[in-house]
């Protein structure tokens, strides 16, 4: 799991073109969000279908680009509105990353409960 301790976490509301790599995402952070991609922060982006996630992270001498693709389910993701970005706590980030598993787990429990009756 990603270490989010002592880092600010910025989530890009709405969807992002997942063809963008490090340079494209860093340009969004600087241009659209008016933030420094070289800071102690994680920048989280999601695609239109909400089944792919990219996290841009600077570690002091280079960028990390974390990528997750879901085989089932989708991430709970805020729509783009007046806000282009929002800050998350570590706990909120863990919930966001775990939301597809939580939804699937709840569905399995509901099926068991219905078949037992």
Automatic annotation (TrEMBL):
InterPro entries: Transposase_IS66_Orf2. It comes from the Bacteria. This is IS66 family insertion sequence element accessory protein TnpB. It comes from Ruminiclostridium herbifermentans.
């Amino acid at each position: 799991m990603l270490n989010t301790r002592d880092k600010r976490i910025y989530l890009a509301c709405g969807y992002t073109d997942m063809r963008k790599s490090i340079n494209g995402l860093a340009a969004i952070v600087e241009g659209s969000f008016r933030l420094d991609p070289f800071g102690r922060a994680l920048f989280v982006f999601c695609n239109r279908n909400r089944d792919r996630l990219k996290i841009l992270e600077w570690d002091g001498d280079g960028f990390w680009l974390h990528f997750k693709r879901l085989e089932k389910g989708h991430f709970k993701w805020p729509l783009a509105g007046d806000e282009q970005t929002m800050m998350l706590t570590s706990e909120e980030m863990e919930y966001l990353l775990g939301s597809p598993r939580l939804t699937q787990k709840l569905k399995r429990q509901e099926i068991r409960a219905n078949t037992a009756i």
